[in-house]
Design goal:
By secondary structure, this protein is α+β, with helices and mostly antiparallel strands. It has nine helices and seven strands. Strands 2-4-5-7-6 form a five-stranded mixed beta sheet, with helices on one face. A two-stranded antiparallel sheet has the order 1-3. The chain starts with 7 loop residues before the first helix and ends in an 8-residue tail after the last strand. It is an enzyme of class 2 (transferase).
Length: about 450
C-alpha cells in the first residue's frame, strides 16, 4: 500500500500557521527597528541639544567679552576727548593769567588732536551706532569745535595784548555753558555704553543660568536613552532566544508530523496485512466465510475510525457527525436512508475508536437484520446535556434482531446468550466510561449510547 499523503486541509493549515509566524516575526522585527530608531533619535536629540547649548553659551560669553572690550575703548576715548578739552582750557587760562606761552603747549596739543580723537570714537562705535549715539557724537564734535573756537579767540586777543578783552571772553557764560554741555554729552554717551555692556552681561548671565537646568535635562534624557537601549538590547536578546526556540519547536513539530504520517501509513499497512491474513485463512474453509467476513468488516471499522482521527494528536478532537457519516456512508443507497440530527459535538481521539466499532456493529445489523433489510428508515439523534453525550439510534420497522442471534428470532424472544457483537459493544461502553442500552419493540429498535463529553470546552 502506498504511503498516505497529507490532506489539502493539513497543507492549508500548515501554510496558514507559517504565514502567521511570518507576520508575527515581521511585526517583532518592525517593533525592534522602531525601538532602535527611537533610541537613536533620543540620543541624537540629546547630543544636538548639548551642542546647541554649548554653542549658545560660548557665543553669549564671546559677545560679552567683545562688548566689554569695545565699551572700555569707547569710554577711554571719551575720557581722552574730555581730557583734551580740559587740558586745552587749563593751558588757555594759564596763558591768560601768567602771559607765559609755555602754558599753551597743552592747549596746542589738545587743539591739534581732538578731531582725530572724535573720528576714532566714531570708528570704535562702528556701523551698529544707534540714532541716539550718532546724535551725541555729533553734539560732542560741535561743542568741541565751539569750545576750541572760543579758546582760539582768547589766545588771539592775548597775542594782541588785549588782556581785558580776553578776560572778558573767559568770564562770559558762553564758554562755561559750552564746556558743561560737552561734559554732559560725554556722560550721556558713557551711560549708553554702560547700558549696552549691562545688556550683554545680562544676556551672558541668562545663558549661564540656562546651562544647569539644560544640562540636568540633558542628563535625564541621556539616562532615559541608556535605559531604553538596555531594555532594547535585553528585548532583542529575548527575541533572538524566542526565535531560536520557535525554530526548534517548528523543527520538532515538523519531525512529529512526519513521524505521525509514517505511523499512520504503517498502521494502514498493518490493517491491510491483517485483512489479507484473515481472508487467506478462509480459503480452505468455505464454511468459515461468514465469520471471516464479519471479522473483516470489524477490521474495516477499526480502519475507518483510525482514518477519521488520522493526523490528530491525542488531545485533538473529531466531530461526532463526521464519525457517524463515516460509519454509514459505505451502505447508503436510494433505499437506505439515514436522518442525522444534532449540534456539533467534539470527540477526543481515544473516544473515536470504541464508538466507531459500536456504530459499525449497529450499521451492519441495520443492513443485515434491521430497518435497512426491510426498507425501513434509520434516524440518529444526539445531544449534550450536563457534560453527558447521548446518542439515540432509532430503526423504524426493524426486526429486533442482532448479529448475535439467528435470523428467525421473533421480537418477543429474548437472547439466550451474548455473542461477540454484544461483548464488543459492552467492552466499547467501558472504554467510553458510559453505557449502551437497547430497547426492542414491534415498532423497531432503539439504542441509547451515553458517555461523558470530553471534547473542547464550549463545543456541543
Amino acid at each position: 500500500m502506498p504511503p498516505s499523503l497529507p490532506s489539502a486541509t493539513e497543507d492549508q493549515d500548515a501554510e496558514s500557521v507559517a504565514r502567521l509566524r511570518a507576520r508575527h516575526t515581521k511585526r517583532r522585527r518592525m517593533m525592534r527597528r522602531w525601538g532602535n530608531m527611537a533610541v537613536f533619535l533620543t540620543v541624537a536629540a540629546a547630543l544636538i541639544g548639548a551642542v546647541l547649548l554649548i554653542a549658545q553659551t560660548v557665543e553669549a560669553e564671546r559677545h560679552e567679552r567683545e562688548q566689554v572690550q569695545k565699551t572700555n575703548r569707547i569710554l577711554l576715548q571719551l575720557r581722552n576727548i574730555s581730557r583734551a578739552a580740559l587740558n586745552a582750557e587749563t593751558g588757555q587760562r594759564g596763558y591768560v593769567i601768567t602771559l607765559d606761552r609755555r602754558y599753551l603747549g597743552a592747549y596746542t596739543l589738545s587743539r591739534d588732536t581732538y578731531r582725530s580723537e572724535i573720528n576714532k570714537l566714531r570708528e570704535l562705535i562702528g556701523d551698529n551706532i544707534t540714532v541716539k549715539q550718532a546724535e551725541l557724537v555729533d553734539r560732542i564734535e560741535t561743542l568741541s569745535d565751539a569750545k576750541f573756537a572760543e579758546m582760539d579767540e582768547t589766545v588771539k586777543l592775548m597775542d594782541h595784548r588785549d588782556i581785558f578783552g580776553a578776560q572778558k571772553l573767559i568770564l562770559s557764560d558762553e564758554g562755561l555753558e559750552t564746556m558743561g554741555l560737552l561734559s554732559q554729552s560725554i556722560r550721556d554717551l558713557e551711560a549708553i555704553e554702560q547700558q549696552i555692556l549691562a545688556q550683554a552681561t545680562a544676556q551672558s548671565t541668562r545663558a549661564e543660568q540656562r546651562v544647569m537646568p539644560l544640562l540636568a535635562g540633558l542628563l535625564v534624557l541621556l539616562t532615559v536613552a541608556l535605559v531604553l537601549g538596555y531594555l532594547l538590547v535585553g528585548r532583542a536578546a529575548r527575541a533572538e532566544a524566542e526565535a531560536a526556540q520557535a525554530a526548534r519547536l517548528a523543527e520538532a513539530r515538523d519531525r512529529a508530523d512526519l513521524l505521525a504520517r509514517e505511523l499512520n501509513h504503517r498502521v494502514k499497512n498493518l490493517f491491510a496485512v491483517i485483512l489479507a491474513i484473515v481472508r487467506m485463512s478462509a480459503k480452505d474453509a468455505p464454511e468459515a466465510k461468514p465469520v471471516v467476513d464479519r471479522i473483516a468488516e470489524r477490521i474495516h471499522a477499526l480502519l475507518s475510525a483510525h482514518e477519521v482521527t488520522q493526523g490528530k494528536a491525542q488531545g485533538a478532537t473529531t466531530d461526532l457527525q463526521n464519525l457517524i457519516q463515516t460509519a454509514v456512508k459505505p451502505y447508503l443507497s436510494s433505499d437506505r436512508i439515514v436522518n442525522l440530527d444534532g449540534n456539533p459535538v467534539a470527540l477526543t481521539a481515544r473516544q473515536v475508536t470504541p464508538l466507531g466499532l459500536v456504530l459499525h456493529e449497529l450499521t451492519t445489523n441495520a443492513v443485515k437484520y434491521g430497518c435497512w433489510a426491510i426498507g425501513g428508515e434509520l434516524t440518529v439523534r444526539w445531544e449534550v446535556e450536563s457534560d453527558q453525550v447521548t446518542i439515540i439510534w432509532a430503526e423504524d420497522g426493524a426486526r429486533a434482531v442482532t448479529s448475535d442471534t439467528p435470523a428467525e428470532r421473533t421480537p418477543d424472544a429474548a437472547p439466550t446468550r451474548e455473542g461477540f457483537g454484544t461483548l464488543l459493544m459492552t467492552s466499547a461502553a467501558r472504554q467510553l466510561r458510559g453505557s449502551i442500552n437497547r430497547d426492542l419493540s414491534p415498532e423497531g429498535m432503539r439504542v441509547t449510547i451515553e458517555f461523558p463529553h470530553e471534547g473542547a470546552p464550549g463545543e456541543g
